[in-house]
Amino acid sequence: MTDAQVFPAPVVMWSRPEDQRSGRPLLVLLHGYGANEQDLLSLADMLPREFVVASLRAPLPTGPGFMWFPLTASVDYSLDAVKEAASYVQDWIDTVKADHPSVTLLGFSMGMAMATTLLRYRPSDYAAVVGLSGFVINADGDPAFKDSELNGSVPLFWGRDQQDPVITPDKIDYTMGWVREHVKLTKVLYTGMWHGINQQEIGHVSEFLTHEVLNK
After folding, report:
1. Which pTM does this prediction carry?
2. Do 121 and 146 contact (CB within 8 A), yes or no?
3. What per-residue confidence (pLDDT) applies to 73?
4. Looking at residue 210, what DSSP letter applies?
5. Contact 132/160 with Cβ under 8 angstroms?
6. DSSP tally for the chain: helices H, then strands E
7. Which residues contact 187 (CB under 8 A, 6 or more apart)?
8. How many Å is the maximal CA-CA distance in the chain?
């Protein structure tokens, strides 16, 4: 990280007050480009009540919201910037994870890139990952990404619309190859959702979390 790149203190919204969090499985929400920590928190009411949900704000301002790392118009990115953002999130998770029996990640769009990056940093730290309308970072050969330790045992839900106009085909192709090789994949395609989330998908996510995290 350069001297100019100083991230702010984490801003987090929780689904439960502090005295009701400890001992519950933790679900960390990672929003998309230009959104904020409020964007996904409403999902908590539609997901299994056993979880305590924490929604984290990305550290970099952009327009009216925030981003995890800078993107160009073609949705390209700097791998170093991705790694800085992942370290920022991981450092925060490290401050709270001891209070919870498990940690699961849910990311939308750019947030899916963050969630899967965190899994690749610490493959043994996460019970499961949910990726919605997003992609996996192309980081082949970077030693910070411990893909060789991902043997297909970590459950990952990937939901998307094939007509999504935002995530470019090269990123879908790379993500498809990566998830098939490294995780226990649940992949669902939706129609009419575009670059978004719909109620049917959240129902599937709820079933996935119940089966792959709560019932283990």
Report:
1. 0.95
2. yes
3. 57
4. I
5. yes
6. 4, 9
7. 157, 158, 159, 179
8. 45
